[in-house]
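Case study B.
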Amino acid sequence: MGAGHAHTLYRAGHSPVHTLPPQCKIAAVFCFVLVVVATPREALWAFGLYAVLLAAVAATAGIPAGLLLKRLLIEIPFVAFAVLMPFVAEGARVDVLGLSLSESGLWGAWNILAKGTLGVAASVVLASTTELRALLLGLQRLRMPPLLVQIASFMIRYGDVVTDEMRRMRIARRSRGFEARGVRQWGVLAKSAGALFIRSYERGERVHLAMLSRGYTGTMPVIDEVTASRAQWSYAAALPLTALAVCLTGWMLV
Amino acid sequence: MTGPAATPPSLQVSGLAYAYPDGHQALFGVELTVARGERVALLGPNGAGKTTLVLHLNGILEAGAGSVTVAGLPVAGANLAEIRRRVGIVFQDPDDQLFMPTVREDVAFGPAAAGMRGAELAERVHRALDRVGMAEFADRPPHHLSFGQRRRVAVATVLAMEPEILVLDEPSSNLDPASRRELADILRSLDVTVLMVTHDLPYALELCPRSVVLSGGVIAADGGTQELLCDQELMREHRLELPFGFDPRSVTAPV
Amino acid sequence: MHVPDGFIDAPVSVATGAVAAAAVAVGLRGARRELDEQAAPLAGLVAAFIFAVQMLNFPVAAGTSGHLLGGALAAILVGPYTGVLCVSVVLLMQAVLFADGGLTALGVNITDMAVVTTVVAYGIFRAVLKIAPNRRRTVTVASFLAALISVPAAAVAFTGIYALGGTADVAIGKVFTAMVGVHVLIGIGEAAITALTVGAVMAVRPDLVHGARGMTARRLELRTGTPATPGRTPAPAASPVTARTVTAAPATKDAPATPAPGAPRRSARRVWAVGLGAALLCAGVASFYASASPDGLEKVAHDKGIDTKTEDHAAKDSPLADYGVKDISDARLSGGLAGVIGVGATLAVGTGVFVVVRRRRADADAEAR
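Model:
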């Protein structure tokens, strides 16, 4: 479920998209996706335009198409649900290729596929053009509570450390002949998980005391700032505003 | 004629006792005094409770009984902020200490937390990194550095706060001989009180004129490092051993 | 279960976003209160732990494996506020960094997977602990039940959100059944893993388990004597080391009973597991093969002609009426699922009743004294 998505998408680069301040990018992408979700599903052409828009941004940023497509595989469980929908939904039936499918189900499936895919693509564009640190700084600029940003920052800093520990435990287990084959071995795995929790917690305590030892008083001292100029905000706003125009046209024509 | 008011000892530990949460007691009444400017090695076998003792020095662990005083200031509640500026602890695992995304931010953390900003902050950071020879690595993320380099940056993070006493927990562990020497040079050049927890006896001899032995949860021996290392019975009693071929009498130890 | 964009319509996405934001704000305040200045690094490390442990593979059989969601585990280990916070951070970072879960669906995902699981789990956990004596081994049993209920609860919440804002025209009954049915099974896995993990932590650092606070106590021993000075003539037989005991502050309120040594911690859990398994087996599978012929009462009523006056039961139109699930035509699946859901619901209600009764009894006892 949450499994296996530990590889960050960031790809270094110097495109105009990369150099935009992070808060602009986050806001732009978020608004874009919101507009996409609010678009009526019957306006098929609108989604085509959205895809073109995103492709243009991705091209400007130098993101290879392969990366985008590979990441879309994350969607598979919901693709499955979408495919099932025409068979399972209620309402008027239509005949497609000899199968009796629900019309509203077909629309529903299209809705989910189109919007979900565009959402994932937009997220990928954001993640691959923005460094971890920048993302957090951007979120902080967007008024996310500082404590939350700190927590996220530590989670990211130590995410690899903890996953490494888990990997080392796994290697140690297997080196001693343990193979996790079924439910019987859950006890051992859970003990590893328990040990991992204790180690992570204790490390958190040690990090905390290292912070305290250097004068931490509860709020992160401000060391770096990211400011954005009006021009940069306008540049970033191009994406969601264009999308908004498409969306409104879509509503008018439906 | 009245003598000058004595400077309070950098560190004074009295009757310190402590037990871990699972019930196991580690310290049974530790008595230790370190004067200003001294360099003292805290020796003892693995599991003696050395790190536990260290964690009491800046109030991280709360003593079950006894007290700790730093330069006259007791380690308790209201004083903790100042205590933590005065006591600079460099931990064994640099990863615990380098928790910011870049080296520069890590070294800046301490002074920035005390309110320093702008050019003054940048100057302090640069000076600290310079003293440990890591100035060119300022913008790297910590996990891109080697272990020895991380150890040195960790020292820099503490130096940036200009502490009264520098407490090092196993500073030479996992370092290759060249890095060990570099670190020794750095430590020798500093003008702070040093308490070094180590079981690297030659290192202790090289850097610290005085040693104390923590064994059985109390300070079991206290005296000149060279004398201590030459006292074979004392060493044997507390499970201290010299590395293969090392003869403490053959070394001219610093005073 | 990470919902992508577009699955839930815009108004409901925004509304759940507000709910999620409020929950996270509450979590932040609570975490600051629970963890004080340690909030940031501890919550961050716990979040890193949850992130890592969600990737831990628990093989079930023949290539399938289970994964932990972690809401119940978080609530029990670090408390409800920090728990909600940590799982929310994990979900947030997964969406922003890995494009896992839609950005506009964050509200839904956080409400569903962080808030509902954690809060329900904590509620059940505390409820079970109130009934049973406050001992270490009950913590494992309580963890099991907490996690068991929390997963289907999340499925129910999801169905609720879907009912409000789902963009597809699938009958609610079908969604409910599919989601809750599957998640009752997943819940069993999550429950087992959670209970085992909590048990493992309890064995080593019971003080780290937020749910088990107040169950430890300790005394301290002091040894006095003068340190030896190296190089002098050996001191006369080492000055007698005297030992004094000092009780460590803070003392605990509960009577410091030493934990019962080796009492089979397994037996309670095994009974539960066997009982639950048997109930599920009967309700889910065996029931289908039960006879459909009218039972004693019905037969008598029919023979005597009494049953012409029966009225339809008020709940005959409910999704679970007649021991079947509406909209699922396959009788076996329908009956089986209904049975499984019934067991789960009974367990929850029964537990709730016990809590109320127990509390009343305790109050009555207190007053009587």
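Residues 94 and 154 of chain B are 6 Å apart (CA to CA). The remaining cases will be described in the next quarterly update.
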